[in-house]
Amino acid sequence: MLIPLAAAGALTAVLAGIAGAWSPCGFSMVDTIGTAMGDARRAVMGLASVTFTIGALAGGAATFGGLAALGSLLGGSAGVRDPLACALALAAAIADWRGLRIAPQIRRQVPERWRWIMPLPLACGLYGLLLGLGFTTFVLSFAVWALAGISFAGDSVALGIVIGIAFGLGRALPVLWIAPRLASEPGKLALERLAVEPRLWLGLRRLDAIGLSACAVVLGSAAALAASLPTFATDPTVDGPSLAWQQAGGHGWLLSHSHAQRLPGRLPALGGGRIAWVSGEKLVVAARFPALTPQRIAGPRGAVVDALAVSAHWLVVRDASNSGIANLFAISLRKPSRRLYLQGSAIPGSIGRPALAGSTVVYAFSDARRSTLYEVNLATGARSVLRQANANILYANPALLGGRLLYERSDRCSQQLLLGSPSGGGAKDRALLTLPSTVSRDPGYEPGYVENYNAASGCPNRKAGPGGTLTLGATALGTVAAYVSESPADPAQTRIVTVALG
């Protein structure tokens, strides 16, 4: 959702910024820079234009990025915030389309005395900052208020900064277009037209309304996706706007464009514009569902497939035999007879669920000695270790997208869903979700006897006693959200939850 929303929001913000040129401050900036306060030196005018632009961009990034950061800190459910932001965008779109009077209105102008007491470039930089902040002077469209709400609800600082920079650019463009030519006849005519043609302002507001409608569509789709996330489900997998999962004890399901469909098989996987699932003894891969001519690949003999991952050119399969031997291998979709062996184990559960990003597969492997996250380039065969720890730490369920690694880390204290760079060893990884460990912890002394300063080793998030009741499971990584399955004591109650990336 982030990329479409950022594109629609940025375009709307540029238009909202340009609409601000019809304010008293907009005309004042054109006159201040265009006349250079009686200084004919073009160098002064050019420098003032640069500082004004920098100030406008910084102000926009500060306002909308700050609102986004505040929204991320306060948290909240996307299932609540996305519908509210969608409703705000639609209401503002209707108001701007109809050209309603702006309310609430901020009747404040930039301080005129600055241009008399300060060097012109410094004064113009500060003027640009005030105009870029958006709410320190006159507001000329409802889109400004709506974009503030979208930035707050979007739960992404990057989204807020993109919208803010676009708004600052919109505030600067009319000034940069007219001010340098103000001494010429074309420049004077442009300023006169700006002053006497309010229809241009109304036209910009109507373009804003179209942009806000696009934002509402994106937010509405995200809200529908959040509302449709299933319970009694596990193994989420995501590709663009589509989400698939395995229904506990049943079939796989696909949710695309707010429409849920039951798949004719189990263990669905999405990636690279493809969908895969297991149907009997066959592995089925299709460019979409339903597909007229899906690709059917023979499954492994004498073993049961229990996990899949797919991309545009590869299918990764994990299987297990009746004797407990498990294997992980990759199949080339261009040449299904080409199969690459990745990992094997005689210990059930040692090989984790794989995830694919292009030709790169990531998976976890754990034994009694250590727990490791591996990355393998299927095109070259190169293998690397992304995370590794000795006993008492478990890594599990990695997912890879756009240069970001999602995975789980569990120890005696907690279970964490972490996001970071595949490289770097995890020192700067960010915790998206933290739950208490399911491990019972001894208090360190026998109840009823003298404690004698003995106690369990400390954990910042829990005391001694029974562990937590929820266990983190399979994950999926989207552009703006992570998906993770949570299992209570009754595995049939497993559900998929959404965690915003911020």
Description:
The protein is built from ten helices and 23 strands. The chain has 502 residues and is α+β, with helices and mostly antiparallel strands. The strands form six sheets. Strands 1-2-3-4 form a four-stranded antiparallel sheet, with no helix packed on it. Strand 11 and strand 12 form a beta hairpin. Helix 3 packs antiparallel against helix 8, helix 4 runs antiparallel to helix 7 and helix 4 packs antiparallel against helix 10. It is elongated, with a radius of gyration of 29 Å. The protein starts with a helix and ends with a strand. The model has no long low-confidence stretch (mean pLDDT 86).
Our count of helices gives 10
Approximately how much helix is present in the residues?
25-40%
DSSP summary, beta strand count: 23
> What is the mean predicted local confidence, pLDDT?
86
- Strand ordering within the main sheet: 1-2-3-4
How far do the termini sit from each other? 12 Å
Evaluate the radius of gyration. 29 Å
In terms of structural class, how would the helical and strand content be classed? alpha+beta
Q: How is the main sheet built? A: 4 strands, antiparallel
- What is the domain tally? 2
**Poorly predicted parts:** none
Give the strand content. 25-35%
Principal-axis shape equals: elongated
